[in-house]
């Protein structure tokens, strides 16, 4: 009986591992919102990390240590943080900045899990509003794909993006 149980466990584990190995090794998360403000105003709130304090959904630790370096804003601006287990440790830098239309960033998570992702904020006119799209793209290693069986990364990260975009809307429409 014990041999049968062990055999069933091994077979099920093998099936799960093979399934995980066949899952896509890329991650894409995207959310958008229309904001009744000019692209220029919104761009300024995104292109300067110090402005993020007013709208980012990731200020979940009041004791978080923040460090700004590089350019004050735009390409070359860098922001690093270290906080509790909710925010972890990481750094983000602006790698491209096209006034009033796009800010491209490179995100390097250090803790709780190592990872590198590309983040883009795109802005485009939508009538009397500006459509702001926040996207993240990255590679997923085997462990990330395995965790994806339990945690819906699109829902988790996308939920944060929705909160951040709603806050950005509030700040920009003031």
3D structure, described in words:
With 174 residues, this protein is an alpha+beta fold. It has one domain: START domain (Alpha-D-Glucose-1,6-Bisphosphate, Chain A, domain 4). Helices cover 32% and strands 37% of the residues. The protein contains 4 helices and 7 strands. A 7-stranded antiparallel β-sheet has the order 1-7-6-5-4-3-2. β6 and β7 (129-139) form a beta hairpin. The N and C termini lie far apart (69 Å). The mean pLDDT is 92.
List the helices and strands and how they pair.
Blueprint: H1 2-22, E1 26-35, H2 39-46, E2 65-70, E3 77-82, E4 89-98, E5 102-111, E6 115-126, E7 129-139, H3 142-147, H4 153-172
Antiparallel strand pairs: 1-7, 2-3, 3-4, 4-5, 5-6, 6-7
Our Rg estimate from Cα atoms comes to 20 Å
Head-to-tail CA distance between termini: 69 Å
CATH level 1 class label: Alpha Beta
CATH superfamily name?
START domain
Class from helix and strand fractions: alpha+beta
Low-confidence stretches: none
Strand order, largest beta sheet: 1-7-6-5-4-3-2
The percent of residues in helical segments reads 25-40%
- Reported by name, the CATH topology is Alpha-D-Glucose-1,6-Bisphosphate, Chain A, domain 4
Discrete helix count:
4
Total E-strand runs? 7
Strand content: 35-45%
| CATH architecture call | 2-Layer Sandwich
Number of domains: 1
């Amino acid at each position: 009986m014990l041999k049968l149980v062990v055999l069933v466990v091994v077979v099920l584990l093998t099936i799960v591992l093979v399934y995980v190995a066949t899952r896509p090794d890329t991650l894409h998360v995207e959310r958008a919102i229309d904001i009744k403000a000019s692209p220029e105003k919104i761009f300024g709130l995104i292109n300067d990390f110090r402005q993020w304090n007013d709208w980012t959904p990731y200020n979940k630790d009041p004791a978080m240590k923040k460090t700004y370096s590089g350019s004050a804003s735009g390409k070359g601006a860098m922001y690093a943080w270290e906080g509790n287990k909710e925010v972890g440790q990481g750094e983000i830098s602006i790698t491209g900045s096209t006034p009033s239309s796009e800010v491209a960033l490179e995100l390097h998570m250090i803790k709780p899990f190592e990872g590198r992702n590309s983040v883009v904020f795109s802005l485009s006119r939508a009538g009397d509003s500006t459509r702001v799209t926040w996207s993240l793209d990255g590679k997923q290693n085997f462990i990330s794909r395995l965790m994806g069986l339990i945690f819906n990364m699109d829902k988790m990260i996308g939920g944060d993006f929705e909160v951040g975009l709603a806050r950005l809307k509030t700040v920009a429409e003031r």
